[in-house]
Write a structure and sequence with these properties.
Blueprint lengths: L16 H11 L2 H11 L8 H16 L6 E2 L11 E2 L1 H12 L4 H7 L22 E7 L2 E9 L5 E8 L5 H17 L3
Antiparallel strand pairs: 1-2, 3-4, 4-5
Helix pairs in contact: 1-2, 1-5, 2-3
Amino acid sequence: GTGYVPRVLASFRSPPLRDYLTAVNQRSHNLYADLILRTIGHLEGDGSFPGGGRAVEGFLVETVGVPADQVTIVDGSGLSGLNRISPGALVQVLSFMAASPCWEDLWESLPEAGSRALYRRMIRTPASGNLRAKTGTMDRVSGLTGLVTTASGERVAFSILGNELPSETGAKRLEDRIGALLASWER
């Protein structure tokens, strides 16, 4: 023994994960998204992107039932061109989450159509104040994944993903038209 007794010099308790999730979903905070994935990596024994990717892919495949060939997670932000997920897999995840105890936190974190958080998209349409979705935009890539209640009162999950687009602006206009059409849809 050296006689050394460790002392706590400082401690910090982070805000709940739902607060970070809201920043990621509403402001597309890429650093938070990457750090969340690395934190999840500790479930696989290391706080790395590969560890987080293995943990998330394992959850999606083993628990949610997403086919393994429909998902590859390389980073948390989605900025890597090596990430892969199908629109069907995203709809499957939303359906699974809607039945989970975490649903309310996820729902509250998603930007609402017509709001500033969704860049006032779909304002003055039936989707405004109704549709909630996460956007995704990079060079020649655009996506919108979320839920909307139809005119018949049915909640519908959807995912629109586009790659190698001539224009992200044109893709966003199409996404908005689809969102408004889904909100207007009646069976």
